[in-house]
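User: Design a sequence. Structure:
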């Protein structure tokens, strides 16, 4: 039995408030525990989006009642809430600030760079700012970090040009960190030679929609080659129901909480990465970058040798599908201990709703 620290996922969408038919704090944090994750940072592109005291309370009240693992909630950067000097009490209650610099699911998008400026200027410099930014907008976000002399964390990098630019920025001492998601490490965009990314029964094209989009084999190879530039593994767990994914105008997003660890442990068993690297990117680095507290008496027990197939039917997420259906993986979460209690064991969640704690609460 392999013992890991309680893992951290700094990027999940739990859909509460507003779209609890896709996921809520109960189902999403159950999925986290089943995946060996004891702490999640929850994104603000909900309905309504989380961008002020009232909406933050809405999300945190739901979380307080329903979460089974520990959590913190991001604030969203909108066009009208850029002056954080007016709201100094809010950032310490949140995971950090999420800025949507490119279009994706939900209403939070800052088109104009004049709208980025106040957020970079006034959000507390000791709190995380995360940018959804792709390609050239990512380069702009890094320039903003340099100009305003504050750290920025780039969400879900997917392209060769992105990882190479982040490498160069780090070499110059710019305060940039980044994460990569399993789907950008294990899947590629459909091409004439490879019509479906996995070739293993994904269903319709709508299932492949995700932002950032799946990229080319060259991009994927470059992410693997430059793993040392990448600070964190994150799921970007973005559940949409299988009916929504298979209908017209499918929303972008993949579930990921229950597949990240088996996929990466399989890569460890294939010697594509080391266990130390996995722990660094799923525990040590996110803990440091997002300034997260210790979770005492918390660990995960994994059967390293268990070989099995990923099946949506076994998952706790409410969305009912996975892009990795049928993948054979090696490494199964057997038990999760969270703050001294057995929270998950052999497929069963053993802590009640409300057990999860807001890790920023003591600061509010
Ligand atoms: O594919 C995505 N889905 N990318 C995002 O940035 C948002 C997410 C969602 O909320 O569905
Ligand atoms: Zn996301």
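Assistant: Done.
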């Amino acid at each position: 039995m392999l013992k890991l620290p309680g893992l951290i996922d700094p990027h999940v969408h739990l859909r509460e408030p507003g779209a609890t038919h896709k996921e809520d704090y109960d189902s999403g944090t159950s999925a986290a525990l089943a995946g060996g994750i004891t702490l999640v940072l929850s994104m603000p592109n909900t309905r309504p989006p989380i961008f002020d005291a009232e909406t933050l309370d809405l999300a945190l009240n739901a979380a307080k009642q329903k979460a089974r693992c520990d959590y913190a909630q991001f604030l969203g950067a909108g066009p009208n809430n850029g002056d954080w000097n007016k709201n100094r009490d809010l950032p310490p209650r949140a995971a950090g600030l999420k800025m949507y610099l490119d279009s994706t699911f939900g209403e939070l998008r800052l088109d104009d760079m004049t709208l980025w400026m106040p957020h970079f200027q006034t959000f507390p410099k000791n709190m995380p700012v995360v940018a959804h930014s792709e390609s050239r907008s990512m380069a702009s976000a890094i320039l903003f970090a340099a100009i305003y002399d504050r750290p920025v964390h780039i969400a879900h990098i997917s392209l060769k040009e992105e990882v190479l630019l982040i490498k160069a920025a780090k070499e110059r001492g710019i305060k940039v960190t980044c994460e990569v998601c399993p789907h950008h490490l294990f899947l590629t965009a459909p091409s004439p030679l490879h019509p479906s990314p996995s070739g293993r029964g994904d269903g319709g094209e709508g299932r492949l929609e995700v932002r950032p989009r799946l990229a080319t084999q060259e991009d994927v190879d470059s992410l693997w080659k430059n793993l040392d530039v990448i600070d964190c593994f994150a799921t970007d767990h973005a559940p949409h129901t299988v009916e929504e994914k298979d209908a017209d105008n499918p929303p972008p997003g993949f579930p990921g909480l229950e597949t990240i660890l088996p996929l990466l442990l399989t890569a460890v068993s294939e010697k594509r990465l080391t266990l130390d690297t996995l722990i660094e990117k799923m525990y040590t680095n996110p803990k440091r970058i997002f300034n997260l507290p210790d979770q005492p008496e918390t660990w995960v027990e994994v059967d390293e040798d268990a070989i099995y197939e990923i099946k949506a039917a076994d998952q706790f997420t409410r969305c009912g599908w996975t892009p990795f259906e049928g993948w054979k993986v090696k490494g199964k979460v057997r038990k999760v201990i969270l703050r001294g209690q057995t929270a998950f064991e052999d497929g069963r969640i053993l802590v009640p709703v409300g057990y999860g704690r807001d890790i920023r609460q003591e600061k509010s």
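The two ends are 39 Å apart (CA to CA). The first helix runs from residue 25 to 34.
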